[in-house]
Amino acid sequence: MSTSPVASAAQDARWMALAIQLAARGRYSTSPNPQVGCVIVKEDRLLAEGWHIRAGEGHAEVNALAACADATGATVYVSLEPCSHHGKTPPCAAALIKAGVARVVVAMQDPNPLVAGRGISLLKDAGIAVDVGAQRSEAEALNPGFIKRMQSGLPRVRAKLAMSLDGRTAMASGASQWITGAAARADVQRLRASSCAIVSGVETVITDDAALTVRSPEAVIDGECRQPLRVIVDSRLRTSPEAKLFQSGGPVLMVCAENNVGRRVALEAAGAEVLLLAANDGRVDLAALLQELGRRECNEVMVEAGATLTGTLLQQGLLDGMTVYMAPTLLGSSARPLLSLPLDAMNEQRRLVIENMRAVGEDWRMDIAIERAFG
Fold first, then answer.
1. Fewer CB within 10 Å of terminal CB in the chain, N or C?
2. How far is the C-alpha of 120 from the C-alpha of 111, rounded, in Å?
3. With 0-12 CB in 10 A as exposed, 13-18 as middle and 19+ as buried, what is 108?
4. Dihedral sign for Cα atoms in the order 192, 198, 203, 205
5. Strand segments (E) across the chain
6. Would you please indicate which residues are annotated as catalytic (active-site) residues?
7. What is the pLDDT of residue 345?
8. What is the pTM of this model?
9. ∠ at Cα 63 (108, 85), nearest 5°?
10. Could you read off the pLDDT of 265-279 as tens digits, one per residue?
11. Spatial separation of the C-alpha atoms in residues 253 and 197, rounded to whole Å
12. Beta-carbon neighbour count of residue 268 at 10 Å?
């Protein structure tokens, strides 16, 4: 084995930053796999690059090696620990060993229990120098939902909300189109596209007749646009089989608490899968729903629902965060509130953590952490 090349911390940071940029190209297509990027360097010169495009296809390291004429003695920068097991593709650690690389720089260890340090051990056992931790926080930020699911079995759950300056989401009649402008709505499309599942409530479906599909040109990869699983919480199966939901591509999961056979058959005929998850109060067991979505390998779950369902998820401690779009408009005191959250005293207030706030067109987007506020 050749002597491992020496690089400065600045060089490691620079090349790993490129690997992370490459990884982000898979934002809309890698689910349920994580986003991963890889670059191959020799004597501080880029030889090849690659990223994971979609599940079942080549991983980032394999794609980079395929683009490299000779990786012997090179340094490989990869945003996530190379896998060590046979899944849908062969192990990447073995491919790097076979290629004769001298050094591998890993941003973060893989939280997947099937890997979890084994890939790093394989490389070291083969005499390859391995360094872990370059740009770790940036790498972790790529895949928060994957990390959470690997560690807990649950997806990362964020609610998307749009409100007026006076904190209202719809008129008393339910009319809400449109509070925010075109730029904010396009931004929501990007959020949908990066989600594994969209959760909504029956009232939202009935009132808005929303398709809840991804229509963003940015999400089209090789002519295909991955549609997230659309999950409708509908305790008594009141959704119409004629709803727009069933007239567009992508899977639909209807989650109920009452097994109404006639309505179930009609919805299944429309193309839905129906899942019974009853809680003691006759409503859908939301905690069990998230466990089911984790079992289905959902990393990121986006909630696009009304005040009642979103408020219930918050009260039950099932939301990790919220993305709130605020429009410079007023809807008045009789309009519907952002959340249904029964609080009576000041000491019951729920203070949150604003992680980021920026303008989106004429509106403002706020990314809010809940787990850091209450965790």
1. C
2. 13
3. buried
4. positive
5. 37-42, 45-51, 75-78, 103-106, 129-132, 156-164, 168-170, 197-201, 220-221, 224-225, 229-233, 252-256, 273-276, 300-303, 321-327, 336-337, 353-360, 363-369
6. 61
7. 77
8. 0.89
9. 55
10. 999 999 999 999 988
11. 10
12. 13
Which residue type occupies 249?
A: G
In whole angstroms, give the CA distance from residue 261 to residue 307.
29
User: Helix, strand, or coil here: 240?
Assistant: coil
Chain position carrying tokens 């009132």: 207
**SS3 of residue 129 by DSSP:** strand
Query: Among candidates 364, 372, 368, 374, which has minimal Cα distance to 321?
Result: 368
What is the C-alpha to C-alpha distance for residues 283 and 309, in angstroms, rounded to an integer? 11
In whole angstroms, give the CA distance from residue 273 to residue 26: 28
From CA 270, how far away is CA 263, in angstroms rounded?
A: 11
Q: Look up residue 281 and give its amino acid.
A: D
What are the tens digits of pLDDT across the range 225-249?
788 999 999 999 999 999 999 987 7
